[in-house]
From TrEMBL:
Official protein name in the record: LYR motif-containing protein 5A-like
Cross-referenced Pfam families: Complex1_LYR
Domain Complex 1 LYR protein: 10-61
InterPro entries xref list: Complex1_LYR_dom (IPR008011), Complex1_LYR_ETFRF1_LYRM5 (IPR045296), ETFRF1 (IPR052000)
Lineage of source species: Eukaryota, Metazoa, Chordata, Craniata, Vertebrata
Gene expressing this chain: lyrm5b
BP term (GO), one: negative regulation of oxidative phosphorylation
Organism the protein comes from: Salarias fasciatus
GO cellular component: mitochondrion
Source taxon at top rank: Eukaryota
Amino acid sequence: ATMANPLRAEVVRLYKNLLYLGREYPKGGDYFRDRLRLAFSKNKGVQDPEQIRALIARGEFVARELEALYYLRKYRAMKKRYYEE
């Protein structure tokens, strides 16, 4: 278990980041949190560092997608506000 410890910190950080991003999720923060918890607990038995790194990369990809989604949503709302005739 000590082998995976540096990765464990990364996983926790990723989880917290996704949890934070999930608060603004279109289907609701609770919906997102439940799905997130499920995804993480499904993979909690994974021991192989390479596999863990791959899962972390996937999680970070999801985080970037969420950030892009929110950014676009804010941008569209702003644009609409400023350019409505």
